[in-house]
Automatic annotation (TrEMBL):
Species of origin: Chlorogloeopsis fritschii PCC 6912
Compositionally biased spans, kind Low complexity: 15-29
Ranges of residues in domain Cell envelope-related transcriptional attenuator: 149-296
Pfam family, one: LytR_C
Record region (Disordered): 1-35
Keywords assigned: Membrane, Transmembrane, Transmembrane helix
Protein name per its UniProtKB record: Transcriptional regulator
Segments traversing the membrane: 58-82
UniProt-listed Gene3D superfamilies: LCP protein
Recorded family membership: Belongs to the LytR/CpsA/Psr (LCP) family.
InterPro entries according to UniProt: LytR/CpsA/Psr_C, LytR/CpsA/Psr_CW_biosynth, LytR_CpsA_psr
Location of the LytR/CpsA/Psr regulator C-terminal domain: 392-478
UniProt lineage: Bacteria, Bacillati, Cyanobacteriota, Cyanophyceae, Nostocales
Length: 480
């Protein structure tokens, strides 16, 4: 994975980082694997009960088979839950090609940072990132503090072949199968039930056996510390957010508009949950925070402080990334063009029939291109979304100081053959440039729309309107 990967022999604070918990977790997998067949057999019954259907079971199974055969995209998504797993997270360094037996010199920490340009990624790398919910009564940095549910889950794909970093947000309510627990549950439970290896296994299986090379877990305290160490993070708060739990141990109180959040406010921003809207608006805010953090991390004033920041943040992270791999990732990110940092949300649906309306069910219909770009998995026999850009759902949001532009944009697009155009509330901030947001990760479609409009900066993220394929945010540069 890393070119010129000098092996560190110094076992100080980085000892936990450099020693992936493969040996311990491999034993856990050996102990639980005999339960696999029994567990999978119980899943259909749990699915039937969770849907709360009042019909004979034989009719339920008949309809399931017919629908499954008809909807090939959904069929593949469902089969992905049961296929055997392989994940790089429990493979040895030799198997992954990460060992460098020729390494002779043991660099000191200062030398690593001064020679960071020598560390390079030579093949794509998938990293599972989890933000762990607070575990009452634990000490920050202790193994117990990382044993909670994952409040946030991201799959990062760093690809040196096309020089991109792609971030796939996985909603915490995504329904997955954990064979060891004999049934269906939400993906946020995986870390609490079996640690990072189990979490990687179920995510890999759900995403059609996507390889997962490494993991990173960060505690809630870690997020607060990171934001505070960076001097805050600037984000747009879309609306006032107020919440207080029954015990009074956690409260949220944020006003709307652009503002610089401190660590505690950043935690409130990403943990706030909209009523009756599932987890997707919260995922959007997570992506907005990631964009803000990225701007701060790579500002000229912060870059020189990265080594110190890594030392301070060490106890808030748990990872099996090696120091050399971290250096290669930092070097790769430093040389990344802004347009090549892209984000999307795992494609899925909320089932109105489910006993739990917040359950989020994977749906890969027409989204195989997203699976390929964001995980590296290629599924044969399924076609990507080939709809012309004129038939995509286009949301129009005015962020200029000219309210009359909304109608002008709609009329202009209708004249050019666009058929699915709708408006969303104006953004209460003024942008100088028009932005085209590829809400579902389809950059090619955004580029085609850009060609039609003759202007607009493209942003591949899920921060546009949730129902849209593409969102146009009208800026002051729009010509009447």
């Amino acid at each position: 994975m890393v070119k010129q990967a000098e092996r560190l022999q110094k076992k100080s604070k980085s000892q936990r980082v450099q020693q992936p918990p493969v040996q311990v977790n491999a034993q856990q997998q050996t102990e639980t694997s005999p339960k696999l067949v029994e567990s999978v057999g119980s899943i259909p019954s749990q699915l039937y009960q969770r849907l709360g259907l009042a019909m004979p079971r034989w009719l339920f199974w008949l309809l399931t088979i017919v629908v499954g055969i008809t909807l090939s995209g959904l069929l593949v998504s469902t089969l992905a839950l049961w296929t055997p797993l392989w994940s790089d997270i429990d493979r040895t360094d030799e198997e992954l090609g990460m060992d460098n037996p020729d390494a002779e010199k043991t660099p000191l920490p200062g030398e690593i940072w001064s020679n960071i340009s020598q560390y390079k990624l030579i093949r794509p790398m998938n990293i599972l990132v989890m933000g762990i919910e607070p575990v009452p009564g634990t000490v920050d940095g202790s193994p117990e503090s990382f044993a909670g549910k994952s409040d946030t889950m991201l799959l990062l794909r760093l690809n040196p072949d096309d020089k991109t970093i792609r971030v796939l947000s996985i909603p915490k309510d995504t329904m997955i199968a954990i064979p060891e627990s004999k049934g269906l549950t939400k993906v946020s439970e995986a870390n609490a039930q079996g640690g990072p290896v189990l979490a990687a296994r179920v995510v890999s299986r759900t995403l059609s056996n996507a390889p997962i090379d490494r993991y990173i877990r960060i505690s809630t305290s870690g997020l607060r510390q990171l934001v505070d160490q960076l001097g805050g993070v600037e984000v747009f708060v879309p609306k006032p957010m107020e919440y207080r739990d029954s015990a009074g141990k956690f409260s949220i109180n944020l006003v709307s508009g652009w503002q610089t959040l401190n660590g505690e406010q950043a935690e409130q921003f990403i943990r706030f949950r909209d009523a009756n809207m599932g987890d997707l608006p919260r995922v959007q805010r997570q992506q907005a925070l990631i964009m803000g953090l990225r701007e701060r991390l790579f500002s000229p004033t912060v870059l020189p402080k990265l080594p110190q920041l890594v030392r301070i943040m060490g106890k808030y992270f748990d990872t099996n990334l090696k120091v050399e791999e971290m250096m290669a990732i930092v070097n790769f990110t430093l040389n990344l063009e802004r347009d090549n940092f892209q984000m999307a949300i795992l494609p899925g649906i909320f089932s109105r029939l489910s006993a739990d309306p917040d359950s989020y069910w994977l749906d890969l219909t027409g989204r195989v291109d997203l699976l390929t770009n964001y995980t590296g998995v290629i599924i044969g026999g399924l076609k990507p979304d080939a709809r012309p850009v004129t038939s995509l759902k286009i949301a129009i949001q005015n962020s200029s100081d000219q309210p009359q532009l909304t109608e002008k944009v709609i009329n202009s697009l209708k004249q050019k053959g666009f058929t699915k155009i709708y408006t969303v509330p104006d953004l209460p901030t003024r942008n100088s440039e028009t932005k085209i947001i590829a809400q579902k990760g389809n950059r090619k479609a955004a580029e085609k729309l850009q060609g039609v409009l003759g202007l607009g900066n493209i942003e591949v993220s899920a921060t546009g309107d949730l129902e849209s394929d593409l969102t146009i945010r009208i800026g002051k540069d729009w010509k009447e």
